[in-house]
Fold Cyanate permease.
Amino acid sequence: MSAEQIHDIGRRRAWVIWLVALAVYVLAVFHRSSLGVAGIIAADRFHISATSLAAFTVLQLVVYAGMQVPVGVLLDRFGSRAMLLCGLVLMTAGQLGFAFSGSFGIAVLSRAVLGAGDAMIFVSVIRLVTAWFLVRQGPMVTQLTGLSGQLGAIAAAGPLAYLLHTLGWTKAFALTSSLGVVLLVAVVLVVKDSPYRRDEVVAIKLRALAGSVRTVWGNPGTRLGMWSHFVSQFSATVFALLWGYPFLVQGLGWTPTGASTLLMAMTAWAVVSGLALARLVARLPYYRSWIVVGVVIAMVVPWTAVLLWPGAAPDWLVVVMAFATASGGPAAMVAFDLARSFTPTHQTGRANGLINVGGFTASLLTMALIGIVLDLSNPGGMDAYTLDDFKLALAVQYVFWALGIVQTLRYRRRGLAHLARVHPGSVEQMKAGHPFVHPGIGTEGV
């Protein structure tokens, strides 16, 4: 029996709820990205090597990725509002602990707590988009979510760098942690899980968790989304969160101001390219995975030029490489739009959680390997790394690009065969330029 609809879908209330949830996601991205401009300061504060510095972000992303499946189950059971509140509490506690940490161990533990809270945010916002917006609005709002969230990265690249310089480590991070308290109140007052009187939730016992996840993972559309996210997201994450700033400043000889400006410009470019990508995805639903692969290839070409250039590449080429890399963020959002074609609404939390694992798994592995290669090529520490050391270390990205492209194309073929078998006419509908959404998600467009 269908639940009674008590609020309009895709209207004013939906946008207000989305804006509040989006603000939480912006804060999550800010906290996640904060080490990007604080990496060199952290290395000096805690007297650590590149491998240890990478451990900050790697552990944070290990926790983030490892929690995606249980968070997806809890999200399907308790809804977005509860998960947003829980995530805010953990992020605020983690960032506050990071502010007052005087040792490497306490700082790492604080980042792990922050990663646990961060893990609950994005998939909760995406579930609200699925529940509150019409099918034709879905691709654009999903892209806007990812792109607007990157405002947090801009704040981390610019204002946080300024706060660290003027206030110092403890006051800067303590001040930013207080934003979570304000958003806790906003979520309590504004966010509702569903426009229906009784939202469909899934009560899953722990012993049934493995079978439930296997069912979702067995859907080739879930794997297509995961590999699409894997191949497109990691390079931008690695560059923005950890190794881009040291590469620009220590390797290429850019000024700290120039490096921070480029990181902010990358985010602005991601917004512009993401809006164009959203329109393209909405008009060409059948070619969504090929669009992702195309963006990745456009990313690989300038990276190859920068890494093979004798000495430091010219500034214009570095900017082209950085902008192409930034386009990977919007491309990764296509993975969640793919899930709408394959996943019924009561499984979206688990499916989106599994998809979200992809890019962050690739990110944390790449970050860790870059740190290891840097230390192996030059054990002298951050001040001793040369441009050639950075070039060698950053070349590990090619392994993940190659694997991701192969797997994306592989599961594109399997996913289309699955849709043709289970939902006759769906493939033809997408070829004609009309979106297909799993019948379990609303009725429009089905």
The chain is about 80% helix and 0% strand.
